[in-house]
Amino acid sequence: MPRFNMSRFKSLLVCAGLLSSLLGFAATGTAFAEAPNAEVGNAAQPSPQSGEQRVALVIGNSNYQSAPKLANPGNDAQSMAQLLNSAGFEVTEAVDLTRNDMVKAVQDFSAKITARGPKTVVMIYYAGHGVQLAGENYLLPVDAKISTPADLDGNSLRLVDLMGTLESIPSRMRIVVLDACRNNPFPGVNDAGRGLAIVDAPNGSIVGYSTAPGMEAQDGDSNHSPYTSAFLRRAREPNLPIEQLFKRVRLDVNDATEGRQTPWESSSLTSEFYFFGDTAVAAARTPDHSPIIQTASNLPSRSVRQAYDYVLSEASPDYYEEFIRLYPRDPLCDRIRHLLGNWLEATAWHKAVLANSPVVYKAFHDSYANSPYAQSALKLQAQPKAVPLMQFTRLTRSPAVNAANPGLSKDHMPMQGPSKIATMPGKGSFGTNTGNNGNGVGKVSNLPTKNADPIRVKTHKPEGTITPRRFGSGNGGNSSPRLASSQSRNSFNSTGDHGGFRH
To answer: What is the helix (H) or strand (E) element at residue 127, kind and residue range?
Structure first.
């Protein structure tokens, strides 16, 4: 594994910062891990005085036709939709969608964001299969049939298209949660990396992944995946800053899976957000980047575990290195070494794909010849990507529509199996099933905010075109993320500054 040449001064600063934080644990109370979980019944409800609009799209794909079925995404989506609805979100819940369904769901959701205005908080949750190839992430519909890498473009939804579309619509905040880092279900795509690839969150956004870059997540043995289970529990805590929510989820999942799964996030937020509590106060605050591990009891006998929880929650490569230096023989150090090595490799690969140059791909291969990305690096060295990583296709309605499927451009021709559409009103309201449009398995439901009027299903007029754009050039700002809480330092420096993680 490559190592860094840290200056003595910087090493001392990092060490002093880590140790002072650990010594601060002994001041009061008990460890964070011992804090009780808040129940939804005790959580403060969103403040109606805030005037904040909240909309969410929740997708759960379980019943794949040509890939292994997944046990939990349907349950995960249903519970997530209920959580968000109780948190004041107007929720569109969609289950077992074909590619045609997924594109249409994003198009309709984009129109909804536009209608709600620039003060809207937007959230997308996706559970299901997802793969990465050549540094790109793809979310897979239930009708995906993929025999070769070339099949991905017509049988999936590019994550960069989804993120770019959201960024191009003015809103206060964009939250994307992806429980999609499971194993690659298509053997024909044999040079895909494990899990999902790094994504730079655009300005005003946070992207949460169920596990670290290049690693695989578990579907879980209960009704929910480990990641979604932890998210559902932690999000109910009132007045919990969103970045601290993700840090707590990271610790919960890592502990529940005995270190096999470690969630991460890329954040470029400009304001604060609480799912429950004083939401008007949160909107006026800057994001809270402070550590979540503040106190500990009996420090001398628990220092290694407390140090582990601290560096894990902060997800800083600098802290990872310092932990390895301080506790090289502790069994927990093996987990940190694995996380650090995986992170450095994934970061270097992300920079190489952003540069998209034969010289850079060769440099990556020479440095990481045994990595899961090495085969892709050789292919891209011979023929770089025709479409740059950050160039996205905006998923909005096009005037060039298909008569049988209005709203879809020629670039998004329908797949087999139209969806079953149903309207599910919020609590205390009544709704009816709008009927089945065919023999498809997809189901889309609308959950209005609590006490709101039921949403009627209607046809939107075409508005805009599907146009290639540069990711980071929309109204949401440029891509300048803060990955967890620290810039990732990488020894793969021959590429120059081609992006990656910047403050």
So the answer is: strand 121-127
Q: Determine the Cα–Cα distance for residues 8 and 475; give it in Å rounded to an integer.
A: 42
Burial of 161 per CB tally in 10 Å (0-12, 13-18, 19+): buried
List of residues 6+ apart from 392 with CB closer than 8 A: 158, 160, 161, 163, 164, 165, 468, 469, 470, 471
Interatomic CA distance for residues 285 and 44, integer angstroms: 18
Which tokens belong to 136?
A: 């790109």
- Judge residue 302's burial from the number of C-beta atoms within 10 Å of its C-beta, 0-12 exposed, 13-18 middle, 19 or more buried: middle
The tens place of each residue's pLDDT in the chain, 503 residues long, gives 444 344 443 443 344 454 444 444 333 333 333 232 333 444 545 544 456 899 999 999 999 999 889 988 999 999 999 999 999 999 999 999 999 999 999 999 999 999 999 999 999 999 999 988 888 899 999 999 988 888 888 899 999 999 999 999 999 999 999 998 767 788 777 665 677 888 889 999 999 999 887 677 776 667 899 999 999 999 999 999 999 999 999 999 999 999 989 999 999 999 999 999 888 888 888 888 888 775 443 334 457 988 899 999 999 999 999 999 989 999 999 999 999 999 999 999 999 999 999 999 999 999 999 998 998 999 999 999 988 887 878 887 654 333 333 333 333 333 334 343 333 433 333 233 333 333 344 556 666 655 433 332 232 233 333 344 454 544 333 333 333 433 333 333 333 333 333 33
